[in-house]
Amino acid sequence: MADYTVPTATGATTSTSYIEQSQTSSNPAASAPNNALDQADFLRLLTTQLQNQDPSDPMDPTQFVTDMTQMSQLEATTKMNESILAMTTSFQNMQTMQAASMIGKNVQVNGNDFSHTAGEPSPLTLNLDQPLQDVTVVISDDDGMVQEIFLDDLSSGEEIVDWDGLDQDGNQRGSGVYSLTVYGTDEEGEVQMVDTIVGSRVNTVSIADDSTVTLTLATGERVSMDEVREIGG
Is 118 helix (H, G, I), strand (E, B) or coil? Predict the structure, then answer.
């Protein structure tokens, strides 16, 4: 690469690469002007326009006020958008922290599969939309039926049933995922299934781009935050 001698202010010479000098002087980012206009710039433009206007055809004062108002509104809108964006980012960060704190918690959701901890009772909520007779609760696992609980007649509404964790033979069952089936007969003698609200532990939490929070439970089920009825320890 050829070097070229560039005279300095004191008369001395400095050896400088011509190509490097050309690249530095032609860097558009370094020499690019700031194209953003603020209210002060707008005022200067209006002042210049007033100073150079045709005396025989002066600027309309009403138009001047209108331009000023529009500029103020534009600047206020820009600042408001920046504030809203900052608030949205802050809310998303807060939501992420709150969602992460739910990992390991027990939640109550509509469903049939629930998490059971050995030695502790598992509360099961039945949600009846009508009175039923001979209501039966069947608890099962992958190997089949574990326990059958008879509740006789129940009125409409919610009813909480505690399963003590024992099977049909009175043996304590281990921790794990169990399934729940509840049914009864209505006034016409027809068998009706009963909706159930069960508890499960939160294993993971995921947050979508639209800030929707989804929980993955110990049962493997994925539910949204809107489906959570209750949060426990």
Answer: coil
Q: For residue 32, which amino acid is it?
A: A
Give the other-Cβ count within 10 Å of 13's Cβ: 11
Strand (E) or helix (H) holding 126: strand 122-128
Whether the model pTM is above 0.90? no
pLDDT digits (tens, 9 = 90+) for 96-105: 777 778 888 8
Domains of the chain: 106-232 (2.60.40.4070)
- Considering only CA atoms, which of 35, 39, 47, 32 is closest in space to residue 78? 39
Distance from C-alpha of 195 to C-alpha of 167, rounded to nearest angstrom? 22
Q: Quick one: residue 60, left, alpha or beta (phi over 0 = left, psi -120 to 50 = alpha)?
A: beta
Q: Which of 231, 233, 230, 227 is nearest to 111 (CA)?
A: 227
Of residues 118, 110, 127, 136, the one with CA closest to residue 200: 110
pLDDT tens digits, residue range 35-78? 555 666 767 777 777 777 777 776 666 766 676 677 677 777 87
Residue found under tokens 């304590």: 172
Task: Point out which residues pair with 28 in neighbouring strands.
Answer: none
User: 3-state class of 218 per DSSP?
Assistant: coil
- Amino acid in the structure at residue 88: T
